[in-house]
Write a structure and sequence with these properties.
The protein has 219 residues and is of the alpha+beta class. The chain contains 8 helices and 7 strands. The strands form 3 sheets. The protein has a 3-stranded mixed β-sheet. A hairpin with a 2-residue loop joins strand 6 and strand 7.
C-alpha cells in the first residue's frame, strides 16, 4: 500500500482566507492538489521534495503512485486555465504532445489562439505562452473541458516550430503511436500541402529524420 507520510510528515492543511476548514471538502488520495487547496506553495514544494507528490502540470499535483491519466490532466487544466482560454485557447505543440502522452510535462504550456476568432486578451498566466495561429476545422479536438490540437496538427506544428531535441523526440513518438493515426507519410503530405509555409523545407527534413529514427523512412 502506498504510504502518504514523508520523512517529516504531511504538513497541516491551511484554511484559505477566512474559510472555515470544517466545511472544506475532505482530502482523499485522489484529490488534485493546488496552491492553498489545501496546502500552500511552500508545503506543496516540500511534499514534492519528499517524494509524496508529483506535479501534473503548472501548479497542480497528485499523490505519487496515482496514474496521471488524461482525465487527471484535464482536471488539472480545467482548474487552472482562465475562462477566456478554456473557451477559446487550444493546447498545442509540446502541450498537446504531453496530453497525448508523447512528451514530458512542459515547463511552459503553449496555448494557441485562432487569429480568426476574437479573443479578449488578459494578462498571460504564469507558466503559459500564447501563440496566435490559424486553425482549420479539422485541427482541433474537443477533449471535454479543454481543446487540443489533433495528433496530425500537433506533429506538423512540432516539425515547424519546435526544432529542439524535445520537439523531435515528441514528433517521433506521435508518428510511432498507431492509435494516434499520424504516420510519417501523412505528416509529410500535410507539410507538403503548405506550399508557401516559412520553414517548410526544414520541417520536412525533421519529419524524414524522425521517420528514420522509428524505422519508418519516407522518401
Amino acid at each position: 500500500m502506498l504510504s502518504t507520510a514523508p520523512a517529516r510528515g504531511l504538513p497541516r492543511a491551511r484554511p484559505v482566507g477566512e474559510a472555515d476548514p470544517m466545511h472544506d471538502p475532505p482530502w482523499t488520495p485522489d484529490t488534485l492538489l493546488l496552491p492553498d487547496r489545501p496546502f500552500s506553495r511552500a508545503e506543496l514544494s516540500a511534499l514534492v521534495s519528499d517524494g509524496v507528490l508529483v506535479p501534473v502540470v503548472l501548479e497542480a499535483h497528485v499523490l505519487r503512485g496515482r496514474p496521471v491519466t488524461r482525465a487527471v490532466k484535464l482536471a488539472a487544466l480545467e482548474a487552472q486555465l482562465p475562462p477566456h482560454l478554456l473557451g477559446r485557447g487550444v493546447l498545442g505543440r509540446l502541450s498537446a504532445a504531453w496530453f497525448y502522452d508523447c512528451a514530458p510535462r512542459p515547463t511552459v504550456l503553449p496555448v494557441l489562439l485562432d487569429k480568426l476568432r476574437r479573443t479578449t486578451m488578459s494578462p498571460v498566466p504564469d507558466g503559459m505562452a500564447l501563440h496566435q495561429v490559424t486553425l482549420g476545422g479539422y485541427d482541433v479536438h474537443d477533449a471535454g473541458p479543454v481543446r487540443v490540437t489533433t495528433p496530425l496538427r500537433t506533429a506538423v506544428d512540432l516539425a515547424l516550430h519546435v526544432p529542439e531535441r524535445e520537439g523531435l523526440a515528441a514528433l517521433e513518438r506521435l508518428m510511432h503511436a498507431p492509435h494516434l493515426h499520424c504516420p510519417p507519410p501523412l505528416v509529410q503530405a500535410a507539410l507538403e500541402s503548405f506550399e508557401r509555409m516559412p520553414g517548410r523545407q526544414a520541417a520536412l527534413l525533421r519529419v524524414r529524420r524522425a521517420a528514420r529514427a522509428i524505422g519508418r523512412p519516407v522518401p
